Amino acid sequence: MDVYVVGAGMTKFGKHPDRDAVDLAVEAVNEAIRDAGVDRRRIQAAYCGHVYGGMVLGQKVLARTGLAGIPLANVENACSSGATAIREGYLAIRAGEYDVVLAFGVEHLTTRFRGALTPGEEDLEGALGLTMPAVYAMRAVRHMTEFGTTREELAYVSVKNKRNASLNPYAQFQNPVTVEDVLNSRPIADPLRLLDCCPVSDGAAAVILASERVVGELGRSRAVRLAAASLRTGTVEVGLPSMAFEPLTRATAQDAYERAGVGPEDVDFAEVHDCFSIAEVLRVEGLGLYPVGEYPKRAARGEADIGGRLPINPSGGLLGKGHPLGATGVAQVVELVRQLRGEAGPRQIEGARVGLAHCRGGKAAGVEGAACTVLIATR
Amino acid sequence: MSETEVVSESYVPFRPGLLRFEGGRGVLVGGRCRGCGAVYFPAPEVCARCQGEDLDRVDLSGRGAVYTYTVVRQSTPEFRTPYVLVYVDFPEGVRVLGQLVGCEPEAVRVGMPVEVVFEEVAKDPQGRPVVGWRFQPAEEA
């Protein structure tokens, strides 16, 4: 039973001091419903991804959007929360339980956090002083040690994504930066600097998922098929594995490729979880989109630019568009939809037919990563 | 704080079961699966590799080598920056995170030999010292 994304909407990502999480989510949900052209009374269930939104955030959104009463589950999976919410809707439609489902994600992070996110103080490594930038800084040291990756090559990932963001009116960063800007920004966790790190963001994103039956009724011209929605959790690391490669990303991607019936060679563009410049490297190599160890050099040559061999994060990614945790995975699918429909404006990837979205979230002592999702959408 | 100073009834371990003191010396305590020999720190209840449920406690060596490192310049309010974090590979085949002390941040290198030291890392609510592990540079073996 095929599942389609028939509507997509999001708020501008950024700092929204005058609005709260519910307010942002209401805007995104209403935009997705209008985009789908579906009567909201036909929505049968909803899934809300958020991390720090507090109890029953999703229900507060339903109450303001004429949807109260339908089943809703609030979903928390760290940075993969939004993508996990979409997957829940995808599974419910595939199971034949519903025909029209709303999945949305939201975060008002500027009122929850300043500075570095951590694995949480109850976590052993968090209590030892581990921050998320530190995790990725230590992975960057290993990528540089094992593959000769340079500081400048890592900086180019940020340069590319902030340039893409400047073409996206929904992105937090609207101004391009240079490699020098990145290298001269404030040090956060050596060798990573401020512009190697995604910003603290507020925002919301929403999609409407529909069954084959409903899509036939609404019309297929703007529908995008969700060909896979895979989820894995990180395994406990045994021995001394390389920190310059991500088995969790690889395992999740293999599951998604198999289910979608496509391979990495078929992917036209990808939105990947670039919470840090080095993170994009590890994702892309883990997904098999570029050979292990080679992405930084190839990206610096322009292969991952819009118009390059295989564009990565045309939306601006987390580095450029922003990273309101729960909204991130849903916003990635919003970008997939806009690209696959040919509605991405100046950042349009010509002829895009297969798009991939990857999220990874959370850290727990002893495991490589907490939750990883790979979604594949096709036209 | 030296190792002998913390061997008093008044110290509180940073986490229960992860460190112990014997004859004035502290050691990190991990777990080894009886079935497949996999070593962990900390020890899980069930072996992640073979799902065996019998794990023995195992003392880790006092020395290891830096696998990777960072100098943390921005952190949460509980931590005074900058500080150096390292993942240390132990001969038992296990990797442990900790702060590196006794070394200029600029001097840290991948592969650098380090030894485990035990220090007061905080005070508990009763004002007793909470003792945890840190690493410091060691002589080449």
Q: What would your notes on this structure say?
A:
The complex is a heterodimer of chains A (379) and B (141). With 379 residues, chain A is of the alpha/beta class. Chain A folds into 2 domains: 3-112 and 201-227, Thiolase/Chalcone synthase (Peroxisomal Thiolase, Chain A, domain 1), CATH 3.40.47.10; 124-197 and 228-378, 3-Layer(aba) Sandwich (Peroxisomal Thiolase, Chain A, domain 1), CATH 3.40.47. Chain A is 36% helix and 18% strand. Chain A has helices spanning 21-36, 57-64, 81-94, 124-127, 132-147, 151-165, 179-184, 212-218, 247-260, 277-286, 295-300, 317-321, 325-341; strands spanning 3-10, 45-49, 72-75, 100-108, 187-189, 192-193, 202-211, 224-233, 269-271, 354-361, 371-378. Chain A has a 9-stranded mixed beta sheet with strand order 3-2-4-7-1-8-11-10-9, with helices on both faces. In chain A, strands 5-6 form a two-stranded antiparallel ribbon. Chain A starts with a strand and ends with a strand. The mean pLDDT of chain A is 96. By secondary structure, chain B is an all-beta fold. Helices cover 0% and strands 48% of the residues of chain B. The radius of gyration of chain B is 16 Å and the shape is globular. Chain B folds into 2 domains: 1-60 and 126-132, no CATH class; 63-115. Chain B has strands at 12-13, 19-22, 25-33, 39-40, 55-59, 63-72, 83-90, 94-100, 113-123, 129-137. The model of chain B is unreliable at 1-7 (pLDDT under 50). In chain B, the strands form 2 sheets. In chain B, strands 1-10-9-6-7-8 form a 6-stranded mixed beta sheet, with no helix packed on it.
